[in-house]
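Researcher: Sequence recovery benchmark, item below. Answer with residues only.
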């Protein structure tokens, strides 16, 4: 999903192009767009993505309800695919930069996978993931370069957090999820998890992510950066100095 096109579409009805350009160049909060408006758009994003997955589930359904969930891993990929798309859209609304969704030889960039893995962790209430996401926002808010953040996500400060989140998910399933993510259309293969199940679980997960993103240094200038966030950012900057000295 193209970040600029997404933000343009969300704000063009209520704001002049100069404000939208500012939101794209920096982020919606920097452009002065009210947090309440951003929150309403975020709720619509969640509603739309939930209806997509729930609509397919209700239309196709499977017998056995929750007892059958474990038997349809391919269809769970669709469920997580919609969840990850919602995560990407919410991150754009709350100030995060473009997420590289370019597929290279069937594999996505490790940084992309790790950022979205942290988002899944936040959605499922993993404390470390929530801290890491807010620390990422704090780093970006302090002007940390994207390449440094990428290094921290793949082999530095944030990587242990990513590994802890992966304990909540089967690694093979995670790879399948990302392999099918960002496709032009989410394929419908066989039966899908029952509509009621997805309807009940999807929104609370997205709401957790929205609440976390709503209060970061990127989305809230008055955000109180915690000691944990500061330590993670300082550690990342220190690792960069060490890396530069080594090279």
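Model:
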């Amino acid at each position: 999903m193209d970040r600029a096109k997404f933000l343009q579409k969300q704000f063009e009805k209520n704001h002049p192009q100069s404000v939208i350009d500012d939101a794209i160049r920096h982020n919606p909060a920097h452009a002065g767009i009210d947090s309440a408006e951003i929150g309403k758009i975020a709720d619509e994003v969640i509603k739309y993505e939930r209806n997509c997955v729930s609509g397919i589930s209700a239309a196709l359904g499977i017998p056995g309800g929750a007892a059958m969930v474990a038997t349809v891993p391919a269809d769970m990929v669709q469920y997580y695919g919609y969840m990850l798309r919602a995560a990407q859209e919410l991150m754009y609304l709350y100030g995060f930069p473009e997420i590289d969704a370019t597929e290279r030889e069937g594999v996505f960039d490790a940084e992309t996978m790790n950022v979205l893995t942290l988002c899944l962790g936040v959605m499922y209430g993993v404390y470390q993931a929530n801290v890491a996401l807010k620390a990422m926002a704090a780093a970006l808010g302090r002007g940390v370069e994207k390449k440094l953040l990428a290094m921290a996500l793949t082999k530095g400060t944030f990587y242990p957090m990513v590994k802890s989140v992966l304990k909540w998910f089967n690694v093979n399933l995670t790879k399948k999820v990302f392999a099918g993510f960002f496709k032009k259309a989410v394929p419908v293969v066989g039966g899908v998890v029952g509509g009621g199940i997805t309807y009940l679980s999807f929104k609370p997960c997205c709401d957790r992510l929205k609440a976390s993103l709503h209060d970061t240094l990127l989305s809230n200038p008055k955000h109180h950066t915690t000691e944990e966030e500061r330590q993670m950012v300082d550690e990342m900057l220190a690792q960069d100095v060490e890396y530069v000295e080594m090279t």
